[in-house]
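Pair request: fold both.
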Amino acid sequence: QVQLVESGGGLVQAGGSLRLSCTTSGRTFSSYGMGWFRQAPGKEREFVAAISRSGSSTFYADSVKGRFTISRDNIVNLVYLQMNSLKPEDTAVYYCAASTIVAISITRRAYDYWGQGTQVTVSS
């Protein structure tokens, strides 16, 4: 069983930055493809960013490309989401996810473990 815990959410003004972190309990963190998803009120959970097991490959949703950066540290079992130039439409609960199935994916069904989420609110 893999447990994921997100942190770093909060309230920020438009144009500001936040860095989300996700720690895992798994002892084979480097074997997990990792991703970030988000869910705004009344909307479906959507893909934000993904990173491969080694960290050599990344994918981003078009809506965050150029503003968000996903990274990971396989030594300390952490994955990060650096969010810059935040917009009110980025307001959502952000979820960290781990895939034991694939190296990297943008689809929800590829991820078998999820965190509880952290709230990000961007004021205009």
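--- second member of the pair ---
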Amino acid sequence: QVQLVESGGGLVQVGGSLRLSCTASGRSTSTYHMGWFRQAPGEEREFVATISGSGTNTYYDDTVIGRFTISRDNAKNTVYLQMNSLKPEDTAVYFCAAGPVMVMVARRYDYWGQGIQVTVSS
């Protein structure tokens, strides 16, 4: 069993930056691929970024390419999402997830954090 806890969210102005962290406990996540998803009010949960277990491979949604960076520190059991040049449309609850496959599909991830709010004000 893996427990995931997100941190680092909050309120930021347009063009600002935030770094989200997702720390795992229960067992090592180094064998899991990790993903970040987000969900705005009234919207479906959508893919943001994913990273392989080793950290070698990453993949991003087109809307965040060049602005967001996913990384991981397996020694700390932590995954990060550095978010730069934030836009109002980035406002959402952000979730991290762990799973056996590196995919963009939420249902393929086995473990989820509780989510953290990111609000970008204009």
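Observation on the second member. The chain has a mean pLDDT of 95.
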